[in-house]
Write a structure and sequence with these properties.
Blueprint lengths: L4 E5 L6 H9 L15 E8 L3 H10 L13 H5 L1 H9 L11 E9 L9 E12 L3 E12 L2 E13 L24 E7 L3 H9 L9 H5 L10 H12 L8 E7 L7 E10 L2 E7 L6 E9 L1
Parallel strand pairs: 1-2
Antiparallel strand pairs: 2-4, 3-6, 3-8, 4-5, 5-6, 7-9, 8-11, 9-10, 10-11
Helix pairs in contact: 1-4, 2-5
Protein name: MaoC-like domain-containing protein
Pfam families: MaoC_dehydratas
Organism: Steroidobacter gossypii
Length: about 300
């Protein structure tokens, strides 16, 4: 594999030019056969945290006042400007508006000093071809005082141009299962303005999250909540049972969460951590499944 193309910014770049390039760009929704991935590495050398922005994130995800430190998924929203820059470089082969967030892994490795700057990196070099389309991985990391304090691997999915191979089976949406006892259950209100509120905090104004009309343009019957909002909201619900540092969080996104609606968050302890599910109010279908483990 060739050496990565490196792009460096002094601070987090503006997302406005990147959004314009996304909307006007002519990338395909699925990479043509034979596409070769050329790696790319982006960095923002100085990222300064804002107490006001952290407070807005805590509000939109309903993080309880008792939860100390940065919420575990918060730094994902700070990475959005570099993610947008990744999506518009020529090395990234497909249109971002057609992508589905499939899986996510976050490792919270050390406490973050909110008064000290961080260095952020985003690295992309992976495409996998599956029976139903293509998967793209990219890694985001934050350093403080020369040490990595937080890192994330996001897996995005692009539907393929051709049909699945003969004999292949479409992935099944699992039913929600959990122990009979010791389950912390929380009803989550997904209000009419959830998409807009999270978009303002995260900078992710993907039209599927904003209105029913714009979501219908991409095949959804209603607006759907950001997957990372659902993740952050479930982590907030589970905060009494999980630490917020020295942990790994593996999340699999399943059924979309429609706006407005209600959902159930369920948390139960397992050896080494906790499992979390977000499911329909009947408790029979999963929106997401999450495993939190101590490192």
């Amino acid at each position: 594999m060739s050496s990565p193309t490196k792009i460096s910014f002094a601070r987090r770049p503006s997302m406005v030019p990147a959004y314009a390039r996304v909307l006007l760009g002519r990338k395909p929704y699925s990479a043509p056969d034979g596409t070769t991935i050329e790696p790319v590495e982006l960095e923002a050398r100085k990222v300064v945290l804002s107490a006001a922005h952290i407070r807005k994130y805590r509000e939109v995800c309903a993080v309880p006042a008792s939860a100390q430190g940065l919420p575990p998924a918060y730094l994902h929203v700070l990475a959005m400007p570099l993610h947008m820059q990744l999506f518009v470089v020529k090395n990234f082969p497909v249109k971002v508006l057609g992508l589905i967030h499939l899986r996510n892994t976050i490792r919270v490795l050390a406490p973050v000093d909110e008064r000290a700057p961080l260095r952020m990196r985003v690295y992309f070099d992976t495409m996998r071809v599956t029976d139903f389309g293509q998967e793209y991985d990219f890694t985001t990391s934050f350093e403080q005082n020369g040490a990595v304090v937080w890192e994330e691997v996001s897996t995005m999915f692009a539907r393929g141009n051709s049909g699945p191979k003969e004999g292949s089976k479409r992935p099944v949406i699992e039913r929600s299962t959990h122990p009979e006892n010791g389950v912390l259950t929380d009803t989550l209100e997904v209000s009419e303005n959830t998409g807009w509120r999270y978009a303002r905090v995260s900078g992710d104004f993907n039209p599927i999250h904003l209105t029913a009309r714009t979501a219908q343009m991409f095949g959804f019957k209603q607006a759907v909540a950001h997957g990372m909002w659902s993740m952050g909201r479930c982590l907030a619900s589970a905060s009494p049972r999980i630490p917020n540092v020295k942990i790994q969080i593996d999340t699999q996104f399943k059924l979309p969460v429609y706006i407005p609606s209600q959902a159930l968050a369920r948390t139960w302890e397992v050896p080494g951590g906790a499992d979390i599910s977000m499911c329909t109010m009947k408790g029979d279908r999963l929106h997401l499944a999450m495993q939190v483990r101590s490192l």
